Amino acid sequence: MPRQLSVRRFYLSGKNKISISNPCHSRTLQCLWRLLLLVLLCYLIVLWQSGQQDGAPALVADVALRQRVQIFCIIVTYGHRHEGVGVHVKRTWTKHCNQYLFVSDDSHEELEPAVFMHRPDKWQRMRAHMEYVYKYHYFDENHWFLYANDDNFVVVENLRFMLQHHNSNEPIYFGCKLRTPQNETYMYGASAMVLSSEALVRFVLQALPNASLCSQEDHGDAADEQFGICMSNVKVLAGDSRDVWSNHTFLPFEAEVHVGSRMNASLEKHKYFLDRSYYEVHNLRLPVSKYSISYHVEYMPDIYDLYYFTHLVNIFGQIQHKDIQNAFGSADVKP
Ligand SMILES: *[C@@H]1O[C@H](CO)[C@@H](O)[C@H](O)[C@H]1NC(C)=O
Ligand SMILES: *[C@@H]1O[C@H](CO)[C@@H](O)[C@H](O)[C@H]1NC(C)=O
Ligand SMILES: *[C@@H]1O[C@H](CO)[C@@H](O)[C@H](O)[C@H]1NC(C)=O
Ligand SMILES: *[C@@H]1O[C@H](CO)[C@@H](O)[C@H](O)[C@H]1NC(C)=O
Fold first, then answer.
1. What parts of the sequence cross the membrane (predicted)?
2. Which ligand is nearest to the CA of 335?
3. pLDDT of 27 above 50
């Protein structure tokens, strides 16, 4: 406030010097007060503008949303991937979760995972992870539970933005939606998915103990299909994670496949997705939402690029989108 002080000093010692003992009747004092108010106002405007250039209003919105839509992230990793993969996830997007927990088959100093040993089958591991999170310390009915792989890149802020239109008491889960040849819906296991607290409760308390609702056999890589079947048997809805323009937010493959080139039907994993996508895919492309949430990372050092360009870079002159309230709102909103 150096300017303010110098103005005050100028008037106090200038030729219109005022009497402190008789302040209320002095016109000079009124003038001084107005000037002070004006300077203060200018100062506040300057503060507000510099705040805007730093993206401060967006940050304020994010702080409020972070309280309102709380996300507990579960990240699945393995001992042999801790150093090459897991730590890079920990050092980038996981800090945007309200809380997070790595789950692994081995311990690690930096990741501090919950360790699940002697479970070679993926489906048995998944069941154990969900049960552990529900039963031991981590459950909160206000939370959403993100279940991600160590090679997913997740924009947690956009996930909150999507989820703010839902209540964690709804029995619902979201992800990259597929269907089996028998027309059962499930979320692609290679992508991340998010469960409401009610969905987690139903899975752990109703589905897990009951073999007629939810298989207790080994299922290996079909764990994601089994999870979908169990969820539908306990009446948990497979939600639509697309935005109001039907653009996709949970992208199954690497960012460059979705925003740069296109899928390749001769690649086995792309073909699997193309055959099973719940939503029709035209021309080997998924329309990508401007509020996209999840991608796969093939080459791990890329995760730092993704993180920098999604969370840290400032684009000079960029303005706020007016559509911000409507991207996941009621379906009748048009672009
Ligand atoms: C799959 O299920 C959906 C919704 O239940 C239905 O609309 C659709 O016709 C079914 N498709 C096939 C091939 O059975
Ligand atoms: C398991 O689920 C089936 C089908 O909903 C139900 O009939 C049965 O009573 C359940 N068993 C137990 C032990 O809860
Ligand atoms: C698609 O994948 C196949 C098998 O990897 C490869 O030979 C082919 O060049 C790819 N096509 C395009 C258009 O990238
Ligand atoms: C939706 O996706 C299409 C195709 O990628 C794109 O042209 C359009 O700008 C996207 N719209 C929004 C609002 O994200």
1. 31-48
2. 4
3. yes
pLDDT digits over 64-115, tens only?
889 999 999 999 999 999 999 999 999 999 999 999 999 999 999 999 999 9
Which H or E run contains 29? helix 27-53
C-alpha angle 81-84-87 in degrees, rounded to nearest 5:
90
Tokens 């459950």 identify what position? 139
User: Which of 31-45, 137-151, 171-185, 266-280 is predicted with the least confidence, judged by mean pLDDT?
Assistant: 31-45
279, 177 in Cβ contact below 8 A? yes
Q: Is a pLDDT exceeding 80 seen at residue 152? A: yes
Angle at 195 between CA 192 and CA 200, to 5 degrees: 130
264 lines ligand 3 (CB under 6 A): yes
Question: Which tokens hold the place of 196?
Answer: 């409401």
The rounded distance, in Å, linking the Cα atoms of 292 and 222 is: 26
pTM listed for this prediction: 0.81
DSSP per residue, 253-270: S-HIIIIIS---TTSHHH
Closest residue to atom 5 of ligand 2, CA basis:
213
Evaluate whether 229 touches 236 at the Cβ level (below 8 Å): no
177: helix, strand or coil: strand
Top pLDDT among 219 and 35 is at: 219
CA separation for the pair 45, 123 (Å, rounded): 57
Please tell me the residue having the least CA distance from ligand 2 atom 12. Answer: 210
